[in-house]
Amino acid sequence: MDAIFSSHNIEHLYPHEVPLALKEFLRVLKSDGFAVITCPDLQSVCALVAEDKLLEPAYVAPAGPIAPLDILYGHRPSLAKGNLYMAHRCGFTQKVLVGTLRASGFQTIASTARGRASFFDLWVVASKSARREDEMRALAAAHFPA
Q: Where do the structural domains in the chain lie, given as residue ranges?
């Protein structure tokens, strides 16, 4: 594979499964392949929790209002319909996500500034091989939302 795009998937795994999944990403990537990964940013979400806004909408998605509780544990309306695969079983801060990617074997990682205020998520691009900083910036610019 040239690239893998993982949007809001890894938080559905148990913590011990994340390194296994990331190593599988590496296994199927070509030597110059990369992964773009996005997931909730627990640090920015927990700031809302610390402000006692656990049930207040943090933003509105096509599925409706999303509260910090939904970001932490999974989308409540989906879970209530019996879609338990939507439950979140782990979470990440920028430091933890980057560290987990490095520990799993990714050589070069670029990430967004922590906590884009509108969606409370993290974005990283992680390369299987070593890449220059300008290459990683270009990949990030091409694959991260504006």
A: 3-143
Instruction: Specify the CATH number for 3-143; select among 3.40.50, 3.30.160, 3.30.70, 3.30.460.
Output: 3.40.50
Cα–Cα distance measured from residue 129 to residue 39, given in angstroms and rounded to the nearest whole number: 22
| Cα radius of gyration (the chain) | 16
CA distances from 49 to 46, 72, 73, 126, 131 (A): 5, 10, 13, 30, 37
Q: What is the pLDDT of residue 115?
A: 47
Within the chain, which residues score under 50 in pLDDT? 115, 117
The overall average pLDDT reported for the chain is 94
Q: Which helix (H) or strand (E) holds 79?
A: helix 76-80
The helix or strand, by DSSP H or E, that contains position 66, with its residue range, turns out to be strand 64-66
Tokens standing for residue 1? 């594979």
pLDDT digits (tens, 9 = 90+) for 53-90: 999 999 999 999 999 999 999 999 999 999 999 999 99
